[in-house]
Design a protein that fits this description.
The protein has 16 helices and 25 strands. It is an alpha/beta fold. The strands form five sheets. The protein has a nine-stranded mixed β-sheet with strand order 2-1-11-10-12-13-14-15-16, sandwiched between helices. Strands 7-6-5-3-4-8-9 form a seven-stranded mixed β-sheet, sandwiched between helices. The model has no long low-confidence stretch (mean pLDDT about 95). It binds adenosine-5'-diphosphate. Keywords: Fatty acid metabolism, Ligase, Lipid metabolism.
Amino acid sequence: MMGQMMQMPLMISSLLVHAARHHGDAEIVSKRVEGDIHRYTYRDAELRARKVAQALGRLGCEPGDRVGTLAWNGYRHFEIYYGTSGSGLVCHTINPRLFPEQIAWIINDAEDRVLCFDLTFLPLVEKLAPHLRSVQHFVLMTDRAHMPASSSLDLECYDELVEAESGEYRWPEFDENSASSICYTSGTTGNPKGAVYSHRSTILHAYASALPDAMDCSAKDVILPVVPMFHVNAWGLPYSGALVGAKLVFPGPHLDGKSLYELFESEKVTFSAGVPTVWLGLITYMKQNGLKFSTFRRTVIGGSACPPAMMRTLEDEFNVEVIHAWGMTELSPLGTLSKLKAKHRDLPVEQQRHILEKQGKVIYGIDMKIVDDAGRELPWDGKASGNLVVRGPWVIERYFKRDESPLLDGWFPTGDVATIDADAYMQITDRSKDVIKSGGEWISSIDLENIAMSHPAVHEAAAIACKHPKWDERPLLVVVRKPGQSLTREEMLAYYEGKIAKWQIPDDVVFVDEIPHTATGKIQKLKLREEFAHHVLPTA
Ligand code: ADP
């Protein structure tokens, strides 16, 4: 016997239609590249998204065509998200912080037909254009007044294209498994690989990530995604925000501590999300100026391990709850988040914090396990660490244009090494290529970094493997001191005593002015390893 319920495909357009009908006057506020503030409502955004769909159709786009974006978080980018996917096109967000050759490679691989970009990226696009094989239209995301007097490109003005349309357009319904958007991994090993999301996977991810034990989004929230819309769809917030009808605040390119702080305050932001490094700048600015938040109460931090010291600072000094999350481009991206269970309520604060420092529990929809190199499942005892594998309706089955499946027995190998405890809380100990293998034992680089980051004189720290004649690899700690602090190698090493086993303490410390970051703001371990490839440890 079949169920007798309505057949309604899960369409991305329905999120925005819902927001426009039921939260029509909720605002979307953007700090524009041009410098000013733009505000309008979900109702306005839905109308403009329909016009975007019409305009892209007029440019010759057909269902399945890819539309590339090189853009900050802003209302035009938001309209393109919905105007493309909603009309059956595929939104391809591109990370502008990648190397230009990588960006050109990605655009050619995705075969983007139209490229929409913010004013910031005009010089970049002019440079890339001769290498782009598929792009037929270059659309500058601005108004007529800001169009450049001359350019080597035949530019089209986004606002003019949109405003020329009537908006008399009905969002089509089609197979919910159709491609909706595509994101490339940053390609730390080899060429980047495309993850192709569907309408179905995006909506399920949006539902799941809005749940109380996940991001806990609601119409009461004012959400400011610091995480860029070019980094795994801003972790789905443009979708889950519309799903719950939350006010959205987009910071544009203005991501320094001062600009962010002012926007958090003026727009009464309650919730945000970003990688650990973005909070460093904000915290430093606020401390220097003795500032506090008036409405901002919780944030998701993920993308790389959030140092417990950062959680403490945000919670104790700024009254902001940190929700530690783990995910990947291949997971749309959310997999796990750390929240307490009812049975943890009466635990001493220190024990609660210990739980919350982990990467957390899966959201329903995702399943996970840890396996050894032979694929055998390992126990959930919080001690055994193994390769983390996952599955679920918002996990990729294969990469764009690649025939071979990355799956092992139906599970996606994440490349992360993790433990899972008896309460199903997962903790990442390392990326498999970042673990330090000392005399056959594994040392977690994340553990070493977390300890270093809790030292008051440390701004940022990275632990990497360094060649050692006897132990194969030993840990080397690379440290950026806080301005004006005089931390020595000996003081840093002494700080580890009693905090971890003696054999895990780094063999050496080097101080640098800056640690390199990837295009998504993570520590670039590969580059550091190359830089210190010939470093001679004092123990060697
Ligand atoms: P990239 O930023 O390299 O483009 P992803 O965002 O997909 O790609 O990176 C996913 C990886 O980031 C994970 O496999 C994991 O190694 C790391 N990661 C994400 N969140 C966390 C976290 N909370 N703790 C530790 N590592 C994390």
